[in-house]
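>> received
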Amino acid sequence: MTRPYTMLFLTEILNKTIMKITYFKDTDTLLVVFNNNEISDTKDLNENVLVETDKNGNVVSMTIEHAKQQAEIANFSFNQVENSGAV
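>> returned
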């Protein structure tokens, strides 16, 4: 059975937070969850992009509708860069 979405999990080593990216192929929607904080506000950046924040204004998640038009979702990459201490 094929699922209608592709899911990627990215783990940040320092604080063990799991960032989850889910693509819903049937609706062409991309959901990026940065943390599991409780959502207190949703802001429309434009008609296709929503950003949800917690009570402190920190970004919790982002929803991108019509994702194929908004982002290059077929070519996703993740790079973690260590702080070199240089300013």
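>> The first helix runs from residue 67 to 70.
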